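Listing S7. Sequence submitted for prediction.
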Amino acid sequence: MREKSIGFVGGGRITRIILDGLRRAGEQLNDIIVSDTSADAVSRLASAYPEIETVHNDNRQAAGRDIVVLAVHPPVLGDVLSEIAPSLQTSTIVLSLAPKFTIPRLISRLGGFDRIARMIPNAASIVNAGYNPIAFSQALTDRDKSDILDVVSHLGQCPVVCDEDLEAYAVVTAMGPTYFWFQWAELLRVAMHCGLSEKDAKTGIASMIIGAVRTMFESGMTEEEVFDLVPVKPFKDEEDMIRSIYKSKLESLYEKLRS
């Protein structure tokens, strides 16, 4: 059972994903407060999660909890850090979900406060199947780390990684589903157009995806050997274009996150 109170600074989609994931895992949402600058967001949260406390435009209240989750985007995170720094207690643990702001940078912007963790969340956390790499500052004890992991482990896998690797995970695992979801949705439409029921199409596509991933990464075969397993490749003429999109879009995005 969770013993620590939690304050979310920011009530957007990632906060809703985490709250939904915790609820789906059977966790109680009591002793959780969420602050957001949007009155509409606060109202939606209060309606969807009546057991939590919500406050409009007062991050100091959220910052007074045992675990403070920074669920805001990098462009506004700097101002948020300055705002909440005076409200942090010596025993507080700050968990940032934003890329770009490394642990040393967070410590600097918080005036030397160093009880910090960073996690790059994955949307599949909403169904407790996320892949959420996490890094800890040297100031956190084993008990502190356990307190954080007791919460986030309900969302899926939470491998402990190096802080400097988190921007790569932001590009690969956090944004990764968006590279495929629209393709799977289109494949579902094609399957139904070809006569499959929606249920059978979803079952077939999901099983195909799982099997394809296992073949790619667990078979011990080379890429070329895997590619050669299926002789008919309807998108072969477009493969080079798709590869170039990956390289141009994602590598430049990573560099922006690291700058």
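Caption to Listing S7: primary sequence and predicted structure tokens for the chain studied. The chain has two domains: 6-163, 176-258. The longest strand covers residues 32-36.
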